[in-house]
Description:
about 400 residues; Aminopeptidase; Alpha-Beta Plaits; nine-stranded mixed β-sheet; four-stranded antiparallel β-sheet; binds manganese (II) ion
Amino acid sequence: xxxxxLPVGRDSGSGGYRRYAWTGADAECRAxxxxxxxxxxxxxxVDRNGNQWAWLGDPSQGDAVVTGSHLxxxxxxxxxxxxxxxxxxFAALDELRRRGVQFAKPLGIxxxxxxxxxxxxxxxxGSRLAxxxxxxxxxxxxxxxxxxxxxxxxxxxxxxxxxxxxxxxxLARIGAFVELHVEQGRALDLTGDAxxxxxxIWPHGRWRFDFRGEANHAGTTRLVDRHDPMLPYAETVLAAxxxxxxxxxxxxxxxxxxxxxxxxxxxxxxxxxxxxxxxDQEALDRVVGAVESAARDYAAAHGVDLDVVRExxxxxxxxxxxLRDELARILGxxxxxxxxxxxxxxxxxxxxxxxxxxTAMLFVRNPTGVxxxxxxxxxxxxxxxxxHALTDVLEGLAT
Length: 399
Ligand code: GLV
Ligand code: MN
Ligand code: MN
Ligand code: MN
């Protein structure tokens, strides 16, 4: 079944995926999800925020066990980040049926909308809206690079944006949410395990740095007369690296917009987005504060103005301890081995939902540790180990 997803939104040059929210590629992924649900006799529904659900049993009964992930991607993303969790959910359900498991609780599979935030700049839009961490007013202000707002994009894709907003009743029906995900680092490769359990997600956020200078001729403007915003921007990139290293954190300028973006013009504007993450809040604050302060000094030295805006922020997530221990117990029950428990610097819908419902995550080994790139990888045997782990977990939780 997963093979059908392989060509969707794939760039024939790089081999990476471009499945952005509410685009044609997203629609194809959604159609695939609906087909998978219907082929299994599950009840398919799309909630008010555009998240897709497939139900076995009646969710209004409450205490539902839900699993799933997302199908959208970053620019030039890999095949596993997101889809592995959704595909594994359907495969685990098939395995549960083969085992003849009788469920005491409703079982749901979910595809959260716009997890990566590649189009509107904010990650986990579907789960943030459902959980109320993104207000309707904030959602209405989200705009893509072409000036299209989130509601207009939803409408153009055939969805009604009028009802978006917190969905506490839907979340209250869920007793446990488990997201399986490809690991985005090499911890499991180093411990030699195919599957691990998540303990925590680092606090993380996105900050926009606008350096405004003065456009001018690249050939005729003397160096001393320039107000070139590219220079303080470049120095800020180096400062981010330095501060992150000092704090044991990470900091990345991965996206940049330049105006007027001409080879022979000094830029008038350099807009760079900082993504920074750290094991604790104090370290993250320290890094971002130091980068901002250095950027202000550099900007002043070049006669350039600087505005810094925090575009999004997600506090530290500690996954539900009881559920995490339950997962480790279920996965370790037939062996003497302990299941590795790891923290991660990557954001996930499970992290957003953890403030309203008990959530847990399973990670599947990624031997190169590469993610958000076409080189992202997980071996077929490890993917199958992930499906078996998820099956055991769902059996343990839903019976
Ligand atoms: C999403 O995958 C993120 O962690 O940025
Ligand atoms: Mn991702
Ligand atoms: Mn993901
Ligand atoms: Mn993510």
